[in-house]
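Q: Please design a sequence for this.
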């Protein structure tokens, strides 16, 4: 029988995501996971820890790391057409929407297979992105403007409309 992918879905509740995630593991994998957690707990207790908190207080380092982790989202900036760097001279301003943020890398079958192919040296010198990146999924309507010499231009796919992890 085929197992469902282990990647978490974005739109369902956290409890449903983890339930679905654990259902995709075999009984042996779950036993191995529980054994590792019990061993980690035992080590913490033997090293002088009185209890192992479920949610430890975040230190300043972890707070900084969490602050840097911003989800992939649409942002906007008002700029002149000249500032876009497309070679047009114009004082007109446009609303430039762009995608910014980080993407959580969920391990999928593709990632496991890619790692295996790289370790077996089937894939060597090619540049391969190991994690998804924040990119436009759709673009706004075309942008039209007059340049400094009263010539009319239209630029397509300039501003993002929707962002996602690709």
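A: Design:
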């Amino acid at each position: 029988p085929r197992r469902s992918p282990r990647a978490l879905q974005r739109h369902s509740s956290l409890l449903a995501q983890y339930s679905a995630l654990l259902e995709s593991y075999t009984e042996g994998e779950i036993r191995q996971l529980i054994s590792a957690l019990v061993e980690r707990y035992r080590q913490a207790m033997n090293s002088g820890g009185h209890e192992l908190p479920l949610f430890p207080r975040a230190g300043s380092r972890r707070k900084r790391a969490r602050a840097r982790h911003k989800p992939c989202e649409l942002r906007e900036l008002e700029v002149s057409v000249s500032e876009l760097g497309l070679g047009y001279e114009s004082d007109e301003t446009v609303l430039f929407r762009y995608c910014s943020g980080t993407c959580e890398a969920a391990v999928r079958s593709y990632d496991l297979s890619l790692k295996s192919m790289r370790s077996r040296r089937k894939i060597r010198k090619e540049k391969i992105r190991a994690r998804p990146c924040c990119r436009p999924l759709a673009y706004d309507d075309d942008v039209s403007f007059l340049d400094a010499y009263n010539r009319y231009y239209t630029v397509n796919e300039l501003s993002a409309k929707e962002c996602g992890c690709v």
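Q: Thanks. Anything notable?
A: The first helix runs from residue 14 to 23. The CA atoms of residues 113 and 119 lie 10 Å apart.
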